[in-house]
Write a structure and sequence with these properties.
Helices cover about 45% and strands about 20% of the residues. It has 5 helices and 7 strands, in the order ββββαβααββαα. The strands form 3 sheets. A 3-stranded mixed beta sheet has the order 5-6-7. A two-stranded antiparallel ribbon has the order 1-2. A two-stranded antiparallel ribbon has the order 3-4. The longest helix is centred in the middle third of the chain and has 25 residues, at about 70-95. The chain starts with a strand and ends in an 11-residue tail after the last helix.
Length: about 120
């Protein structure tokens, strides 16, 4: 008898969908909320070892996604990186660019502390 994996047995044929570079395994990656409640401790402890997020269903429809903090941080980082690159490309297309010397001058003005002004003698 195969090992039970959140309601499925290991070795069973599963439907798989490609998500990024990892396959989404329907039988392993979707669980009803009742199963999440019944096995909460075990599922939360195993999140770090899961290669993919877990979709929780309510009345047969997706209701939540559960993932490890590490996976969430990675997803969040990727999103911020892609947004920053997209903004940079849009700036370049719109002509909002400066050459290297201008960029260094501007950074130096912002980074280096300004000399305090001396009070004028009256």
């Amino acid at each position: 008898m195969g090992k039970s994996v959140y309601g499925s047995k290991a070795g069973e044929r599963r439907a798989a969908y490609q998500v990024g570079s990892r396959e989404f395994q329907t039988a392993e990656d979707i669980i009803p909320i009742a199963e999440l409640k019944a096995n909460m401790s075990e599922i939360v402890r195993g999140l770090d070892e899961r290669p993919r997020p877990l979709v929780v269903t309510l009345n047969g429809k997706p209701a939540a996604v559960v993932m490890s903090p590490r996976e969430y941080d990675l997803l969040s980082y990727r999103s911020r990186f892609i947004n920053a690159v997209s903004e940079g490309l849009a700036d370049a297309e719109a002509g909002r660019t400066v050459d290297g010397e201008q960029a260094i001058s501007q950074l130096m003005r912002e980074i280096l502390p300004r000399k305090p002004r001396r009070a004028r003698a009256r």
